[in-house]
Amino acid sequence: MNIEIKDLSQVYKNDFRALNRVNLEINPGMFGLLGPNGAGKSTLMRILVTLQKPTHGEVFVNGMPLSKNRKEVRSYLGYLPQDFRFFAKLRTWEFLDYAASLAGIKSKKQRLSAVDDLLEQVGLFDVRNRFANKLSGGMKRRLGIAQALIGDPKIIIVDEPTTGLDPEERIRFRNILSNLSQKEVIIILSTHIVGDISSTCSQMALLNSGEVHFTGSPEQFIKQSEGHVFKTSVTFDEMKRISETFPVITSIPDPAGYEVEFVADKPNGWKASEVQPNLEHAYVYFMEYLTKSKIELE
Ligand SMILES: Nc1ncnc2c1ncn2[C@@H]1O[C@H](COP(=O)(O)OP(=O)(O)OP(=O)(O)O)[C@@H](O)[C@H]1O
């Protein structure tokens, strides 16, 4: 399985360009699409799941153009939309049973066995008789991924699935996804949460204002910010000045002021030592320095 996105643009009716000439290659494993709110992630996800036609460009799934093979591509897909909703009056297992019949599993016996497997897989078996609308936020999201997994999809697309979840549920959700990525499937995870990417994705892209600014592994992404993350001690007075000059990532109070970690192209006169960057540092560095310089260059 392989997805190639070629020169994809989306211009909305109000002339707003939500995607601008996006090119990506996505192979089996977990692919993280990282970007701030409004970057165009949901637009791209909706195009991939055939809910929206792009203004320009094409998506190829295993070499097949999506625009001419929508039905076939749909048969490979599982999708968890950002605003996942379900019918309030169904129990958790009934909802999945209903979703399985919509997905074309006709035999009742086959459906019930698939539902039990899915409930086990996402850790909802014990609450299978609870009304779906009475599940906690994290459980609802897990029910969402369970319905996306019906029919063993080869491509699983999840749009901002961890937003609003507490840390424990977020980890649980990521673990479900990373277990899936052991199989030969493509999982595309769109998120604005850096932590979702670091722990699970082998490949990633950074999308900002509808444009891809980076594509590669999280390790390569981090490498780009090496030599641009610093640590120094500042007085209370200096704190204001440094935070107006650079993005400060952490500030830990000490008796004389603060120990701060900041991201900069150069530390510009501040006596600071270099720090080994992590993904959060790299994201801030990209957003502050590299995406802006790319936009200015064009
Ligand atoms: N139907 C539409 N008409 C006009 N503009 C739209 C439409 N849908 C989305 N947009 C705009 O396109 C941009 C990208 O939206 P999109 O939902 O794809 O971003 P996103 O990265 O998923 O962000 P978020 O996480 O906030 O949803 C936003 O500025 C949004 O307001």
UniProtKB/TrEMBL annotation:
User: Molecular function (GO) terms listed?
Assistant: ATP binding
Residue ranges annotated for the ABC transporter domain, each copy included: 3-234
Judging by the UniProt lineage, the source's domain of life is Bacteria
Indicate whether Nucleotide-binding appears among the record's keywords.
Answer: yes
SMART domains (alphabetical): AAA
Task: Supply the alphabetized keyword list.
Answer: ATP-binding, Nucleotide-binding, Transport
Q: Spell out the family assignment given in the record's similarity comment.
A: Belongs to the ABC transporter superfamily.
Protein name in the entry: ABC transporter ATP-binding protein
